[in-house]
């Protein structure tokens, strides 16, 4: 009798699970036979819902780990075209607050995106030695376009943090996709250039014998070669550099990505995950309503004649709430700005044309 009752209960649980569990995989479903719908943990009632697209990659995995540790995140969706079951199973065992769900392949993209407050995109191919970021355009442009079409459909109000290279072109691609869909909000689309600032803070601290945590270097322009323009005249705390130091620092900051690529283990993943989490956390704190959250990012902008430009922005409940002017530049920086704008114009135009064609 007892056995009959148990098997009826088990059958009922299986039926409920089949109806209530979405096709994504959850890591509360294990050998016990209990599905997510049968467990009492609800998760997601307070905090933000964040999706990572490209979550199984070199950046995606440490980024997923670090976002699972962020107390502002209540739900974390991990999407990729490969390997998300393993990454999700692993990360879901961490005893932090965020509920983790994995999504695999294009057919689960919409489910991964529905209801998200913040979408972080490190999906796409990275550079190999000898390549420029622009060499990634042909593959990554299509990937970013498809993912942004999903965002326009499923979470048009989400803040988007775009990491996939070439950022100087992928951000314009995303903007064109959103414009086509009628969902473009320039305040919610941010190209992630945070790693340039992270590197600049580190390298300046090294040269000046400072603690990198106390250094703040604005890095403007874009995210490739000469478009990466550190404003060493505006470093905090104020520093006085020799011309030799300025040349060394500018060159090292502009080529930080290449330095990692040439070291041979792929392009930056760990420092990028660190930078992406710093940036995502700033966006979430802005969404929460914290005051004075200022970071550099590549955004739709009027600070120059170009339609997109990286500069200091204030983050708030609606994403970018204010874009700051560049401030006084010295002659060295003015020359650098002209070079940066020339290259940026081409990269932005290439991204726009890709969607318009
Ligand atoms: N903005 C920045 O400062 C930086 C940007 N990057 C860029 O980030 C991107 C990712 O770099 P890594 O993580 O090292 O590459 P990776 O190859 O290790 O990982 C990329 C992931 O994207 C996934 N992916 C490919 N197509 C996809 C699609 N259609 N939908 C969802 N996922 C897809 C792959 O399966 C893979 O797991 C590259 O474009 C790289 O250049 C890298 C470092 C810094
Ligand atoms: O250099 C690369 O290809 C990756 C990247 O954007 C960076 O590390 O800044």
From TrEMBL:
Residues 193-355 form the Lactate/malate dehydrogenase C-terminal domain. GO terms for cellular component: chloroplast; peroxisome. Keywords: Glyoxylate bypass, NAD, Oxidoreductase, Peroxisome, Tricarboxylic acid cycle. NAD(+) binds at residues 54-60, 80, 140, 163-165, 272. Its main location: other. Gene3D superfamilies: Lactate dehydrogenase/glycoside hydrolase, family 4, C-terminal (3.90.110.10), NAD(P)-binding Rossmann-like Domain (3.40.50.720). The keyword Flavoprotein does not apply. The active site is at residue 223. Substrate binds at residues 127, 133, 165, 199. One of its GO terms (molecular function) is L-malate dehydrogenase (NAD+) activity. It is found in: Peroxisome. PROSITE patterns: MDH (PS00068). InterPro entries: L-lactate/malate_DH (IPR001557), Lactate/malate_DH_C (IPR022383), Lactate/malate_DH_N (IPR001236), Lactate_DH/Glyco_Ohase_4_C (IPR015955), Malate_DH_AS (IPR001252), Malate_DH_type1 (IPR010097), NAD(P)-bd_dom_sf (IPR036291). It catalyses: (S)-malate + NAD(+) = oxaloacetate + NADH + H(+). Belongs to the LDH/MDH superfamily. MDH type 1 family. PANTHER family: MALATE AND LACTATE DEHYDROGENASE (PTHR11540), MALATE DEHYDROGENASE 1, PEROXISOMAL (PTHR11540:SF71). Homodimer. NCBIfam families: MDH_euk_gproteo (TIGR01772). This is Malate dehydrogenase.
